[in-house]
Amino acid sequence: MSEIPYVNEAVIDRDLKYYIFDWDDNILHMPTRIRMEHKSEDGIWRPVELSTSTFAVIRTDTANYRPPKGGWQEAFKSFSDEPNKNHFLDDTIAALERVEHGEIPGPSYEALKRTLREGRIFAIVTARGHSPETIEKAVRVFIRYALSEEDREQMMSSLRGYRKCFDKVESFGTDAEELDRYLSLCRYSAVTFQDFKDRMAADPVYQEKLATATNASKPELAKEFAIRDFVEHVYHMLRRSGNASRPVSIGFSDDDPGNVRAVSDYIKRELSKRFEGIKFVVYDTSDPTLAKGRKVCVSGQLNLPGF
Questions:
Q1: Where are the alpha helices (DSSP H) in the chain?
Q2: pTM for the whole thing?
Q3: What's the mean pLDDT in 87-91?
Q4: Which is more confident, 191 or 258?
Q5: Does the pLDDT value for residue 299 go beyond 70?
Q6: φ, ψ for residue 199, nearest 5 deg
Q7: How many whole angstroms separate alpha carbon 147 and alpha carbon 157?
Q8: Run of H or E residues at 37
Q9: 4 pLDDT band (50/70/90 cuts)?
Q10: Which sequence spans correspond to the domains of the chain?
Q11: Selection from 200, 65, 213 nearest residue 125 by Cα
């Protein structure tokens, strides 16, 4: 006789917290490199390969750094899917193996582990150019490497608990089927992926924003769009399950100070007014001396008439 899976019905008493994570240098220190050209003291432009953390610092320094032959596609070649090479999965495995051997992971590594253990809905929002399917596969790799057997059992019991309490389900699929369903509810946005850019360009609000945006500000604008998409997704889930009136908090973490400033301003300027009552929490993880980053909160009241 097969063992009856444990259903954690105590999840009904949990607060409703959801998370948005940047990936590179926030969750993991990835070995992927950006190909650039650097202007040396002798005035000659020479090729260099930069880590994502270094690029975050110099990305607006156009006097000294430029993409090879003026082409950003070549600079970020390793940050997109290729037919015979999956850079993201390979580099995720390499980064996780380094963590296993003692390397300190990104400041939100433990937060993602906790999110998965508790079966909470989340989003990955990255400046990369991978498909959502590729990013979801990387999350599955993270589950396999970073979560212990006990962690995975806790995750599955929480997932079944949410299904019973929110969806009124009494029978469940296999662990693999329940995990598939959970990960399908999460969001994976690589803001330089072509389908994402097309969807953003077709949005009436962001058509107008993109028309006046500088090239340097477009990645931050894309993260705004991805965050708005996730917040709307969370609201619709809560409304369908009859929990739209409960207190909600949504956290965002990023190691790029420019993104943190842009997202914080966006939340204060637009999201906190549109989603009054949701507690928005932003974690600036750019300072390596702060284990969990610098925390900034914006509050409001969940109210979306017309949805």
A1: 52-58, 72-75, 87-100, 109-117, 132-146, 149-167, 175-185, 194-202, 204-212, 218-240, 257-266, 272-274
A2: 0.87
A3: 93
A4: 191
A5: no
A6: -65, -40
A7: 14
A8: strand 34-39
A9: low
A10: 9-29+105-298
A11: 200
